[in-house]
Design brief:
single chain; about 20% helix; Ecotin_sf; serine-type endopeptidase inhibitor activity; Ecotin
Amino acid sequence: MKFSKTIIAGVIMLAGVNAFAQKKAEKFEKLQIEMFPKAKEGFKQVYIQLPIAKNENDLKVEFFVGAEKMLDCNKHFLIGKINTQDLQGWGYNYYEIESKGETGGTLMACPDQKLTQKFVYLQPETVRYNSKLPLVFYVPKDMEVRYRVLRPDAMKKAVQR
């Protein structure tokens, strides 16, 4: 009987510690975001908080800044650039997007002139994976940020001749 009360008390204590740790992590994440500047007029702040991963030094993050647009059969890209800024006094980076949403593309003759919705984006960038700091972006209000995590394949052996 005494043993089961001890187990129940331990489980309750662990649940309390876990809830405390979760609240502390949420508070830390909010502090991290608040230390970055506020978004300028016409822009929004977007951030990516990466989950903790094994072997983070082996991973990379590729991000795409763009918008959904109705486009023809040509290959399109968004005109603009991504500027890396230093968060003064902290040593962290954030990204400011310079783009008016204009697109460029190939000039193939599209036989049916049919338009389809596509995600058109700026030249993607690749950065190192770091779950300790968010990736923070300042993008025009009509744009979004997408990303993917790049993982190394199993090591391959070169062909020798």
